[in-house]
Design brief:
220 residues; Rossmann fold; 8 strands
Length: 220
């Protein structure tokens, strides 16, 4: 595992450029074949933003992003199980479905794989929203639980070329997370309670997987 950047941290733009360069080198080392790189981190750590910026830098013919959030169980299912108030916890995702789809992405046997996307505001997953054509050489997948060593999540280590962990100060992460909840219609007091309650419980589990990462990325 490597930690990067060090004390002489580059600007966010330079960090994205450097990481994108690393992805291109990894792809070249794989003889130009497809690589799948995971970006893990706690809620509000900026992993989605980092994945999006990397993909934008690389361009749409070179990269695609497959978010784990597309495998949220629907609210109707969560209510039926009595766990809607724990949405975002590790058992509120279709983990087997996520692993199976990534296996298809890695194999690149199909002309195109369609991944689901989680729609903020609607707060539900949308099926078949993200096309991943066979020709795309770099696929980024980001989510909370990519480094969990228990099945079925542990299979991701065999599927992914590498998995990075995004690390930021906890107070900054919580501020960003609460603001995101508020921006999507949650009252301020409720947003704070959810941030320091269910979100923080999930964050502690995710932080416990940090040392399994191939690289720690400091991202603020």
């Amino acid at each position: 595992m490597t930690t990067w950047p060090d004390a002489d941290a580059p600007t966010p733009g330079a960090l994205v450029e450097a990481l994108a360069g690393d992805l291109l080198e990894m792809s070249a080392a794989n003889s130009g074949g497809r690589i799948v790189v995971g970006i893990a981190g706690a809620p509000g750590s900026g992993k989605s933003t980092l994945a999006s910026l990397l993909s934008m830098h690389l361009g749409p013919t070179t990269s695609a992003v497959v978010p784990m959030d597309g495998f949220h169980l629907a609210d109707a299912v969560l209510r039926g199980r009595g766990i809607r108030d724990r949405k975002g916890a590790i058992d509120t995702f279709d983990a087997c479905g996520y692993v199976a789809l990534l296996a298809r992405v890695v194999a690149a046997d199909d002309p195109v794989v369609y991944a689901p996307m989680y729609m903020r505001g609607l707060e539900e997953p949308i099926a078949g929203a993200i096309p991943v054509p066979r020709e795309i050489p770099i696929v980024l997948t980001e989510g909370n639980y990519l480094l969990v060593p228990d099945p079925p999540w542990a299979k991701l280590r065999d599927l992914a070329t590498a998995i990075w962990y995004v690390d930021i100060p906890n107070d900054i992460r919580q501020q960003r997370l609460q603001r995101r909840h508020e921006e999507h219609g949650m009252p301020s007091q409720e947003a704070r309670a959810w941030t320091v309650g269910p979100d923080e419980e999930n964050a502690r589990l995710i932080a416990s997987t940090r040392d399994y990462a191939d690289r720690i990325v400091t991202w603020t």
